[in-house]
Amino acid sequence: xxxxxxxxxxxxxxxxxFHYLFPQLTMxxxxxxxxxxxxxxxxxxxxxxxxxxxxxxxxxLSFGFGVVTGxxxxxxxxxxxxxxxxxxxxxxxxxxxxxxxxxxxxxSSFLGILLYGEGRFSPRTQWFASLMLFLGSWLxxxxxxxxxxxxxxxxxxxxxxxxxxxxxxxxxxxxNPWLFWQFAxxxxxxxxxxSFVMAAVGAFYxxxxxxxxxxxxxxxxGVVAGAIxxxxxxxxxxxxxAKQVFEHQPIKGAAFEGLFRTQRGADLFLVGQPNxxxxxxxxxxxxxxxxxxxxxxNRYAEVKGLDAFPRKxxxxxxxxxxxxxxxxxGLGTIFVGVMGLAALWLWLxxxxxxxxxxxxLLLSAPFPYIATTAGWMTAELGRQPWLVYGLQRTAEGASPxxxxxxxxxxxxGFLGLYLLLGILFLFLFAExxxxxxxxxxxxxxx
Amino acid sequence: xxxxxxxxxxxxxxxxxxxxxxxxxxxxxxxxxxRSEQERLVALGAIKPVWSGYEVLLVASGGLLFFAFPxxxxxxxxxxxxxxxxxxxxxIARGLxxxxxxxxxHLLWRQFWDVVFFGASTLLAVVFGAALGNLIRGVxxxxxxxxxxxxxxxxxxxPEPGILDWYTVLMGIASVGILAFHGANYLVMKTxxxxxxxxxxxxxxxxxxxxxxxxxxxxxxxxxxxxxxLNYAAHPVGYLxxxxxxxxxxxxxxxxxxxxxxxxxxxxxxxxxxxxxxxAWGSYPNVLIAxxxxxxxxxxxxxxxxxxxxxxxxxxxxxxxxxxxxYQIYAHxxxxxxxxxxxxxxxxx
Lengths: 446, 349
What we know:
The complex is a heterodimer.
Chain A: H1 2-43, H2 46-79, H3 82-116, H4 123-152, E1 157-159, E2 165-167, H5 170-174, H6 177-208, H7 212-248, H8 250-257, E3 263-264, E4 268-275, E5 280-287, H9 290-296, E6 302-303, H10 318-347, H11 355-364, H12 366-383, E7 386-388, E8 392-393, H13 404-435
Antiparallel strand pairs in A: 1-2, 3-6, 4-5, 7-8
Chain B: H1 2-33, H2 37-45, H3 51-68, H4 70-79, H5 81-100, H6 107-137, H7 166-190, H8 193-224, H9 228-234, H10 240-257, H11 261-283, E1 286-288, E2 298-299, H12 307-334
Antiparallel strand pairs in B: 1-2
Helix pairs in contact in B: 1-2, 1-3, 1-6, 1-7, 1-11, 3-4, 5-6, 6-7, 7-8, 7-11, 8-10, 9-11, 10-11
């Protein structure tokens, strides 16, 4: 059963990480699509209609992959985490059911209108549909994050006689204080991904000399949105998140910063590897006292290290957590640099002739995906050893009768299937880009 | 209030089966009613704008079961582990087939996804039918409220059955027949010319097959789960549901013969819904029936979540229901009538 737990964890981690590659693009693009549709409505220019139509096609592709990879996550709560579902279903069932009833439904409905309704509807209705699509996809993110926020920071529950948890305030659950910064940080990250992808496709068109006029619109939109959202990632949303982690989950904070010992004037490690034998950071490059300053704006403030907590409550894979966090934070900083530079060149009117910078934008596209995945690994690995923070340990949540062989079999099946899905998505994405933003979207029968 | 949610989940699932069932049905008959690329685009065009909206209902039903009866969700999903993961893989394959087929204009690419669409739809119909069979027959719940069933054992019902036994296999076959009938009726309603003629033939054949299979399945319940009769004996008004179901099936066959396409499709929808409600009527108050010891059964009272959650959910559920109905009516007006291809979506020959 011990190995079944490992496979259960890996299966959820892999299927969730893979799934999230798609919604982060759709949620980011949803906001940019509202902007593009507004421009189209305002100017009445066919150029913007085509731009919007092109990104709707990409949106739909990513949404479709998001739907088919999303259903396995809801199922896995029951299939692999039966004891967790039984324990916590009375609370998180609410938010998951609401997501299904409201958000997912809103999204798929209005996407249908955007995709198949052109020609049957006025541009104003189309614009409204894009607004509803945005609302639906962000609402979907909200309900899912409300579920995760509750697992990070359980609120609004009562314990029944048999030990199960039931919700006692829907408002409390939906307005979990943890949720504010988590939602802001996560959705801003989605906009970063959407912006980088849009800018990269634009850079590709300009560099290859096809559809250059569309390419310029893509790059302009992507760079402006990307510069703003990348900056917001660090401050205030990243800062707010880090502070709430140190306030409510100090072990997670100490673990991802690599702070083994409680310190006054705690140092900030930029580079270095956690050594689990000596419980120190090997070959560190650090900024003295910076962690205390960032968290408490006080050079001498004390930050609790891992030594302040019993070892059984430490996250069980500390180096992975530490690396995830540092990759996320490092990439986030680099994004501000890349997008800041591009925005400056755009403002100077030199971006569209600066081939090196366009190449940089093109090659940057995969990195927001790596950063968001690393960010989620930080949040989830850092929650360990808890499934519901402080209430249920991960080891107590798995299905009791699902044997490790079954779990391994399905894990391998998912790996193979998702490899195929990934190849297929990239192929179709490339086909859409090759086809370009000309004419109507490819042969949909309706 | 538990009974209310039991009813809501039954109806949500029922509507899901009616609506996504027509997608499965189209998938089952797809290869038989279309020959040319243009005909295939017409058949696919009849479901493409709506299918993902229908699949939302599966997610919604799952979510509702999770929130209302978390213990039953936990036991059921972990117990049917292999079958459910296979369902997931099939749902992925079918969704992909529908979405990616038209992206590439190559004969082999399209033929490949056509077969995937047919195969995944047919297998999903079998698995969903077998799943319903499992709920009727019951599962070997232990005293902790969990179970795990193999895909099959000796194909006999009894205290230690597999997911597939003679009864659930029969249910799977019945499900394929019924959904093929339902999907064919939908295509008759949504298409013209050759596709319509062929769908009409398929509807005739599968209609009579459906009658035979339903009679077999109903007869077999007596041997598999005699306890179903208790509710019907206690509340004979329940007999209304199977009666309405069978009458609708007969009506669907008649309407179709007289060329009343929309009426035939509505009747086959009502037939499916009524049969599912009949099942729930017989099963109540059990959510999962134990084959081991009736005391281990998960019922709406011992599997239910907290009182407050059930109450507060009424509010948001009603709002969601209104939104859902409004959109469905809107979408049906939008996509009503026969499918006609826009000139630019017809591939160059």
